[in-house]
Write a structure and sequence with these properties.
178 residues, mainly alpha, 0% strand
């Protein structure tokens, strides 16, 4: 058996350790990169969730305050409708950017993200439809309710019989006919 010189042994020893450290560093770099992908994915997903949460809060505020909002009944515009629409579109943009990234693709999350995005679209469409129906329904002076109220006032003024001028009895007749 041939003896290895001390110089060759040191070269082989350091070369082996250099390769071992290189492999360890590359695994460590890969893990750090994977962790950063997860953190970025989590950050952007949380941003989408927060945008959706703020949009839901705007929708809630709309439902709480639409009755007193005369601008809404005249223009079908509300700051809450606009804010909700902007926030939902922000959430959709973030989700669109997350679909197809390596992390979501590797863990088969693309379908779930697309379903979440589609549900946001449906929620926004339903909310806009409800707001439109509330606009058509109107308030005491506008829309269907306003027209009914003005017809009711007109009918009260046109009735000559004093007994039917009592609003309570006339409203009972109108409500019964519906």
């Amino acid at each position: 058996m041939k003896k290895i010189s001390l110089q060759n042994f040191i070269i082989v020893f350091f070369a082996f350790h250099f390769l071992l450290v290189g492999a360890f560093v590359s695994v460590l770099v890969f893990q750090i990169k994977s962790r950063n992908e997860v953190k970025n994915f989590e950050y952007y997903f949380n941003e989408a969730f927060l945008s959706w949460n703020r949009a839901t809060y705007s929708q809630h505020n709309f439902f709480m305050e639409y009755k007193d909002d005369l601008v809404f009944y005249q223009t079908e515009q509300s700051k809450y409708l606009k804010r909700s629409s902007i926030l939902i579109s922000e959430a959709q943009n973030v989700l669109d950017s997350l679909i197809g990234v390596p992390y979501s693709f590797n863990y088969k999350m693309d379908d779930k993200l697309q379903l979440y995005n589609d549900n946001l679209v449906k929620i926004e469409d339903i909310f806009e439809e409800i707001a439109h129906l509330l606009f058509i329904r109107g308030s005491n002076k506008t829309g269907i309710i306003g027209n009914c109220a003005s017809l009711y006032e007109l009918s009260l003024n046109s009735v000559t019989d004093k007994n039917l001028k009592n609003p309570f009895s006339f409203s009972m007749i109108i409500n019964y006919s519906f």
